[in-house]
Amino acid sequence: MISLLQSNGRLDGVFGNQHWKVQGTVVGDQVTFSFSPPKHPEITVRYQGTLDSSDRMHGTMASEVQSGTFVATRKWRWNGLGCGGGPSLRWSALLHS
């Protein structure tokens, strides 16, 4: 699973329990993000997708060793400041090979 935090058009996050750094962008309804396993920097796992709504995105994943599709959903989390605090912009992506 990939966990992403969206700040404006930037995505930052981690892959799995290894906490590998993931970075990407959101431009309009187009999403891209990627990471390289630290022990295999020659491999880059790239995700490209489309925002279907404010709560869902889907797309494809490809690397030198695997490919597939993914679906991500926004996980709304309130920041504890009451109604005025607003939700954080967190995404969780699952790969379907």
Secondary-structure map with pairings?
Layout: E1 2-7, E2 10-15, E3 20-27, E4 30-35, E5 45-53, E6 56-62, E7 67-75, E8 90-96
Antiparallel strand pairs: 1-2, 1-8, 2-3, 3-4, 4-5, 5-6, 6-7, 7-8
Give the N-to-C terminal Cα separation: 13 Å
Number of strands: 8
Q: Unreliable segments (pLDDT under 50, ≥5 consecutive)? A: 79-88
User: What's the pLDDT, averaged over the residues?
Assistant: 83
Strand line-up across the major sheet: 1-2-3-4-5-6-7-8
Word description of this protein:
This protein is mainly β. Helix content is about 0%, strand content about 60%. The chain has no helices and 8 strands. It has strands at about 1-5, 10-15, 20-25, 30-35, 45-55, 55-60, 65-75, 90-95. Strands 1-2-3-4-5-6-7-8 form an 8-stranded antiparallel β-barrel. β3 (about 20-25) and β4 (about 30-35) form a beta hairpin. The radius of gyration is 14 Å and the shape is globular. Residues about 80-90 have low confidence and may be disordered.
Task: Give the tags.
97 residues; mainly beta
Short description:
Helices cover 0% and strands 60% of the residues. The chain has 97 residues and is mainly β.
